[in-house]
Amino acid sequence: MVALTLVDGVLADTVPVSDRGLLYGDGVFETLACRQRQVLQLPAHLLRLQDSCRQLGIPVHSQDIEQQIGTLLSCLPPAPEAPEEGVVKIIVTRGDGGRGYAPPASVKPRVVIQFHPMPADYAGFSHSGISCMFCQHPVSANRALAGLKHLNRLDQVMASRELAAAQTRAANADPLLQEGLMFDGQGNLVEGTRSNVFVVIDNRLCTPDLSEAGVSGIMRAALLDWFAGQGVTVRVRTIAGTELPLASEVFICNSVMGIWPVNRIYDLSTDTCLTLPDQAMARRAQHGLLKL
Amino acid sequence: MVALTLVDGVLADTVPVSDRGLLYGDGVFETLACRQRQVLQLPAHLLRLQDSCRQLGIPVHSQDIEQQIGTLLSCLPPAPEAPEEGVVKIIVTRGDGGRGYAPPASVKPRVVIQFHPMPADYAGFSHSGISCMFCQHPVSANRALAGLKHLNRLDQVMASRELAAAQTRAANADPLLQEGLMFDGQGNLVEGTRSNVFVVIDNRLCTPDLSEAGVSGIMRAALLDWFAGQGVTVRVRTIAGTELPLASEVFICNSVMGIWPVNRIYDLSTDTCLTLPDQAMARRAQHGLLKL
């Protein structure tokens, strides 16, 4: 099954070349897990979408988006022709036109909503854990865009190319190598290419501060809330890359993968590998928050 | 006349929703001036395009692009139905698909080429000079992307919105307010929203170092070459925003506008204005390099 797509509420597979998403990455997106044809964490995603659009000055109504998600799901053929488990991606761009970078005086945002099948291997990685690698491509720093899941994602593309190259290199043929860790220009840990990262150092759970760079994920926020409710303090702080050898546990998360323990982290530049001995926090959150 | 567009060599006005330019800003672009149906500085633009694509790993052949520009110009109706003077925009994306950020194993780049009429007021600004303002939105810092004219342009969009807001505010109804100056997170001058910037301080011509942020413009490179040939040293260095009150001259440039002297710079946050008393370097380059 190929992806099913709605553009502005209508089944379609193109957008105008004048769309500002294409021209400038002028928009935002959300990626939601879908189980038994129900999207998960919808209110949190719609809230972030609305908030991101407000910060960028894109006038969008989350009720419209919610309605279009319903339309999309109702267009899916019954299982097994379309799978019950999938990924719903929502893209909102500022719409068409304007003279150069400046948007037109009156903006009509464009909404693209897609259903993709859930990658078959995701559930397995929750159990087995994965391997990560250090990516060389740095995350762009900008306090005014940090946290937003906007469409300027060249950093993630470039880091994902590093990951894909390592995955196909015979010497590193670890089938669990599934994510790359990204750092800012000063060498501080920011995030995975498509995930947020939690680290246990000195028995303290911490996650990178994202006020200068990175995407502030819905699952990251859910984990911060959930751990707080469990009486576990999560320190949101600058984590230097040089601290990672001190870590006893690392796990990554996003709305679609859930929580994946990290077993080892490759540093291809020095041909070394960190082994993480512990998975206690990840397993606790999987069973408590995700009810795996 | 609306824009005339070729997509992969064929007259078209849409791209697939799976285009990675839309999904991630995964591509680059060039903007060329066109006079009497001839594009200017074509070899330099094609060289930069090819070089940027190489850095991003997008396999593109500049001969194909050159051929498509020829096709586009041959599709233009005769003047006055289509103007003789225009702007040719070339967008190259990595093409369609892939699973998430990772590109597909085999990439087929997409090429979008457009002809737009030349903005009517551009020639006038070369003579009158313009006013600028300080933009609050910072330029993203990333040494691995700095210099490239890639499609991740949210920074320029956000700064252009500040400029547009100031242009429509009655209290600042200066018709020459045409550009916003952008700074990095440390307050160093980087560029204009759509231009590079040159500054004369203490009788020394200088322009911002772009190794961490900014677009390395074709006209900026041409000016650096031309001034060197004139025996004028241009210092490429970090220029703190706090140095601007010491400037005697400021001018901006790009391939379409050419060179615009800056008469004054508004700081809306303090409701103050810097006046630049001199235009000697800008006029010299206009008459020498551009043969105005």
How many individual β-strands of chain A? 17
Q: What percent of residues of chain A are in strands?
A: 25-35%
Query: Tell me about the biggest sheet of chain A?
Result: 10 strands, mixed
Strand/helix succession of chain A: EEEHEEHHEEHEHEEEEHEEEEEH
Please tell me about this protein's structure:
The structure is a homodimer of 292-residue chains. In chain A, strands 8, 9, 10, 11, 12, 13, 14, 15, 16 and 17 form a ten-stranded mixed beta sheet that branches. Chain A has a six-stranded antiparallel beta sheet with strand order 2-1-7-6-4-5. With 292 residues, the first copy, chain A, is an alpha+beta fold. The model of chain A has no long low-confidence stretch (mean pLDDT 95). In chain A, a hairpin with a 4-residue loop joins strand 9 and strand 10 (188-192). In chain A, 26% of the residues lie in helices and 32% in strands. Strand 3 (14-16) of chain A pairs antiparallel with strand 3 of chain B, so a sheet runs across the interface.
What are the main properties of this structure?
32% strand, 292 residues, 26% helix, 7 helices, 17 strands, 10-stranded mixed sheet, alpha+beta, 6-stranded antiparallel sheet, homodimer
In short:
2 copies of one chain form a homodimer. Chain A has 292 residues and is α+β, with helices and mostly antiparallel strands.
